[in-house]
Design a protein that fits this description.
The protein is of the alpha/beta class and 183 residues long. It contains nine helices and five strands; from the N terminus they run βαβααβααβαααβα.
Length: 183
């Protein structure tokens, strides 16, 4: 049996992280660990406690109060799966980890994945990001849509500064999945 691996799927909002992560998990026979699914309900409680608008997970008060805990829950769950020999697909923005080699190294050390960690960066053209944001109409996207140009210029779409595999989510996913699995 090959060693358990950690596949980290990161990207800006509406670039297809969750869709790609689920497809990758199926192909890899890995546990899908999506931050929104694992921690969303508790983050929503915190949002209510700090007075944020319902579903506004981009409220700075919500992010400040929850980032460390949500990533901690995600990484601890992944580490437990890896110790049990189960590969994982972690889905989250991983903003700090993808932009800071030291933070990426800390993530890899925390996971201690015997087969290593692979970063898949989901991306698509800005007009497609804008279309997807508008189409899904999620409360967490209200701030982005209210200042779409500002969001698109914010650096959210900038590629990682650590080794990664680019996944264009406007193209067929099968070849992208194969590239990540062999990466």
């Amino acid at each position: 049996m090959p060693p358990a691996r950690a596949y980290v799927v990161a990207g800006a909002p509406a670039t297809g992280k969750s869709v790609f992560g689920a497809a990758l998990a199926r192909a890899a026979g890995a546990a899908p660990l999506d931050q929104d699914v694992l921690t969303g309900p508790l983050t929503a409680v915190v949002a209510g406690l700090v007075g944020a608008a319902p579903g506004d997970l981009d409220d700075p008060r919500v992010r400040a109060a929850t980032r460390t805990a949500t990533y901690g829950a995600l990484l601890d769950t992944a580490a437990g799966c890896l110790v049990a020999g189960v590969s994982v697909v972690l889905v989250a923005p991983f903003t700090a980890e993808r932009s800071d080699p030291g933070a990426w190294a800390a993530l890899e050390a925390r996971l201690s994945a015997p087969g290593g960690a692979v970063l898949a960066w989901t991306t698509c053209p800005p007009p497609e990001v804008a279309r997807r944001l508008a189409e899904r109409g999620a409360p967490r996207d209200r701030r982005k849509l209210a200042d779409l140009d500002g969001f698109l210029r914010s650096g959210a779409l900038e590629p990682p500064r650590v080794p990664h595999i680019v996944v264009d989510t406007t193209a067929p996913l099968a070849p992208r999945i194969a590239a990540v699995l062999t990466g």
